Amino acid sequence: MLQAAREIAHEMSQVDRALYAAVAATPTPYLDDGLRNLSRAADKSVLWMAVAGGMAALGGPRQRRAAATGLASIGVASLLVNAGFKSLARRKRPERQEEPGDRHVPMPSSTSFPSGHSASAFAFAQGVSSVTPELSVPLHLAAVAVAYSRVHTGVHYPGDVVAGSMIGIVTGGAVGRVSGRRAASRRTV
User: b or e along 101-139 (b: 16 or more beta carbons within 10 Å of the residue's beta carbon)?
Assistant: First the structure.
């Protein structure tokens, strides 16, 4: 049983590396600048803080609560990923090959698994969507783009971004439920 689990893990790792290599080898000159810029914009969650700031400044109380829920979701997801999962998994970053075009962003010094950018992106999207469901599609599409940009720019394997995305979805959902209960209890008082 244990041997079978090791073989499955090895084969999944091979698939993950092959997918990374396929993305890296595919010339995409029209996508490279945009994805590189998007990846950089999501560094330290600056992109999501800007979206939250816009929601808070331009929206009403519901949008401000959604923005706060999204930012709280990022905080929890970042803690889980950076203080928890990354220290346990210790997966090395991909080794970059000569790839077409200028698509790279600086290689982070942290370990690769799971992707913190993906976790934060999906945590924000899920947290905000729990309060303002009408923003779910655009925010989740933006989160998908950020997650893919991390593979495209050469700093993560696809499995890293899938795991980070799942952590973000679960975290954003949990924070959203807690936020919803707190808001409901305030309305009944």
Answer: eebbbeeeeebbbbbbbbbbbbbbbbbbbbbbeebeeeb
> Is there a domain that residue 102 lies in?
no
User: Is the distance from CB of 158 to CB of 151 less than 8 angstroms?
Assistant: yes
Q: What is the pLDDT of residues 112-158, one digit of tens each?
A: 899 999 999 999 999 999 999 999 999 999 999 999 999 999 999 99
Residue 4 lies in a domain: no
Give me the number of domains the chain comprises.
1
Amino acid present at 71: L
Question: Does 32 reside within a domain?
Answer: no
CA distances from 139 to 131, 136, 161, 185 (A): 13, 5, 16, 27
HSE (CB half, 13 Å, CA atoms) of 149?
25
Residue 70 lies in a domain: yes
Q: Would you give the DSSP letter of residue 76?
A: H
